[in-house]
Amino acid sequence: MGYEKKEQLYEGKAKKVYASNEANVVIVSYKDDATAFNGLKKGTITGKGAINNRMTNNLMRRLEQKGVPTHYVEELSERETAVKKVSIVPLEVIIRNISAGSFAKRYGVEEGIVFDAPTIEFSYKNDDLGDPLINDYHALALKLATQEEIDLIKKYAFMVNDLLKGFMKEIGIDLVDFKLEFGKTADGQIVLADEISPDTCRLWDEKTHEKLDKDRFRRDLGGAEEAYEEVMRRLMGDK
Ligand code: UDP
Q: Beta strand pairing status for 91-98 and 114-124?
C-alpha cells in the first residue's frame, strides 16, 4: 500500500509537510535549505535533504526497536518519508553531554568540557520570541504540555541520548548535544518527531574533534557537504 502525496500543509525552514491519502499520516519532504541564528543566516547545503531524511529514518527505526516511540512510518524516496500525523509539543528539548554552542556562551565556559551527567533544557518553540529558554513550571503555566507529558518527554529524551551516544560511538563520533521535538498523536500518545541529523546534533570526530555538523555552516568553516556525507557514510556502514 503506497502513500500518496496530497496538498502541502506547511513549509518550515528545512522541510515541507504534505497531507497523504491517509488521514493520520503526513509526508515530510526534506529540503537542502539551511538556516541559522533564528533564520537570519540562510544558505544551501547541497545534498543535505536526502542525507537528513535517510539518517533520521535510520536512527528512528533503531530507537523504535529499543523502545522509544517515534512518528516514523515508512521511507518513500530519497527525500520523502511518511510519518504519523502529530501535533508538535512546542518545546525544543536539548540534551548536552559536552559543553558547546549557547551553553558555552551563556555560562562563559569553553567548548569541549565533558559533563559527568547529561543536561536537559527546554526552549519554547516560538520563532517570533527567538525560542526562549523555559522551565517545566513555565511550560505548565503556558499549558504547552501536562506534567505527565513533560515527565515522559524527559524520560524518552534521556533514553534517546543513551542510545544515540552508543550509535555514534560505534562510528567514531562523540555526541556533543542535540535537539529533539516530540508530538502527540490523535490518540494522545507522545512520540519522538521531527529529525535527528547533523542539522540538529553536534557531532565531533572522537579522534580529531573535527566538527561534522551544522556548525560548519553556522560558523562558515567550509566543508559542510563533506561533513554530512561523512557522517552518513559511517552510519550506513560503507567504511
Ligand atoms: N538546535 C537545533 N535547533 C535549534 C537550536 C538548537 O537543532 O533551533 C540544536 C543544535 O544543533 C545543537 C543543540 O541543539 O546540536 C544545542 O544548540 P545550542 O542551544 O547550543 O544553540 P546554538 O548554539 O545552536 O544556537
A: antiparallel
